[in-house]
Amino acid sequence: MKHAHILILEDAPVVREGLKSILESLRNIDYVATAGTFEELTHLMKRKTCQMVLISPHYLHSHQKQLQQLRSQYSNVKWIGVQYTLFSEDLMSKLDGVVDVFDNQDTLSTKLSKWLETNPDEISQGKENLTERETEVLKLLATGKSNKDIADELNISINTVITHRKNISQKTGIKSVSGLTIYAVVQNLISLDNY
Amino acid sequence: MKSKSDIHRDSKLAEIIISQPYIILMLEHFEVSLPVQDITISQICEKHHINEALFIAFTNLYCGKKGIPSLRLTADDAITITRFLATSHRYYLEQIYPEIMQLIEQMREQNKHHEMKLVSLFFTDYFKEVTTHLDYENQVFHPYVECLVTESKGATCKDNYIDYSVSQYQDHHDDIEMKLTDLKNLLIKYLPTYNDHIIRRKLLFLLSELEFDLKIHSEIEELILIPLAIDLENKDKTSRQ
């Protein structure tokens, strides 16, 4: 699984910190650092490898040369503009992509994943090939239901529930109910509110 | 025929430690500390009053060999074993579990994914279960085994354990390694990372060390101590008839 390191260059603290906190909650983003000035960004890029820089487009005007230099120095890094006002198409074409401040979390995740060549659903797609029934059993188990409750709810025998549980543990490598609960949260099968 | 890698009474402890550093942990549980100079197994056993065959069996377990040979053990060996286990308990409760807990907390501070809160809760609950498990052995089962040893030497103390027997301990003896393996699987396969590679690696190394020691710990309990305690219990019953 590919995890990304992202740097943000944005002078408005509210936008910068807001963006950072949203990015931190996305699954395929591994590390986010912020810079308030171009110098800080240059410094950060020296210290830490990154795959992407989110940049406020006005820097394209003010730091044209420095930007070109960084782009040639770190040729694998994707430069994405954060748009909250209209910039000229010509300016934006200098970037690898644009996100909008009105993008919601899902749109942002999908866009960034595309540029980072990662899959936003990578984790949720890898549900260890649990069958639909096993997934149902896991969801109920993770919300604190007993074998009997699960049998009643799904209209199957307790023995069948036990067989499903054995298969789930074998496929995931996790045996305890509390461990499976964490697995179910990671896989987005249940939300933390159910816990 | 003995192969070169076989551990025997004349094997040098230092050489074994170099090829298998976990032996240091075993020595700590025997309350033997480094340095060991050129001392052999038979010399260390004599110095610390440990049955050589028992020491070699433990060393083989820590070197990753499966199974335990049939050992001719005495009542005094039961005391050696309960002391070894009690020292291991202190290592679990006072050292490695708190160290793991600390790393989980560091990881939670570093990794903002909400699953990490659950991992922290998972481990806190698990540690409570482990503490209950080990306290029971320290306070009930080990004193009972020591009482059986006392009885085997002609003194009495069994009146304190009228309704107790080894079989009750066997019923009570649940698996404390399972959740550890679950946690390893979660960290290796599923939990999303966030700039926590170093902490995660340290955590996995500690979990593996603990898992390794706990596995041997259970084998010693189940394959050596329990049969020996049952034997002492049977002898005690016969002597009372």
Explain the overall architecture:
The complex is a heterodimer of chains A (195) and B (241). Chain A folds into 2 domains: 121 residues, Response regulator (Rossmann fold); 69 residues, Winged helix-like DNA-binding domain superfamily/Winged helix DNA-binding domain (Arc Repressor Mutant, subunit A), CATH 1.10.10. The longest helix of chain A is centred in the last third of the chain and has 15 residues. Chain A is elongated, with a radius of gyration of 22 Å. Helix content of chain A is 52%, strand content 14%. In chain A, helix 5 links the parallel strand 4 and strand 5. Chain B has 241 residues and is an all-alpha fold. Chain B has 2 domains: 72 residues, SP0561-like, CATH 1.10.3910; 166 residues, no CATH class. In chain B, helix 5 runs antiparallel to helix 6, helix 5 packs antiparallel against helix 9 and helix 8 runs antiparallel to helix 9. Chains A and B meet through strand 2 and helix 11 of A and helix 6 and helix 8 of B.
Tell me the series of helices and strands of chain A, N- to C-terminal: EHEHEHHEHEHHHHHH
What assembly state would you assign to the polypeptide chains in this entry? Answer: heterodimer
Count of all domains of chain B: 2
CATH class of the largest domain in chain A: Alpha Beta
Any idea what the shape of chain B is?
A: globular
| Strand residue content of chain A | 5-15%
What's the alpha carbon Rg of chain A, rounded to whole Å?
A: 22 Å
Q: What's the N-to-C terminus distance of chain A?
A: 27 Å
Secondary-structure content class of chain B: mainly alpha
Helix content of chain A: 40-55%
Pair with the biggest interface: A-B, 23 and 24 residues
User: Low-confidence runs of chain A (pLDDT<50, min 5 residues)?
Assistant: 121-126
Rg of chain B, Cα atoms, Å: 20 Å
Name of the CATH architecture of the largest domain in chain A: 3-Layer(aba) Sandwich
Question: In terms of structural class, how would the helical and strand content of chain A be classed?
Answer: alpha/beta
Q: What is the fourth-level CATH superfamily of the largest domain in chain A?
A: Response regulator
Mean pLDDT of chain B: 90
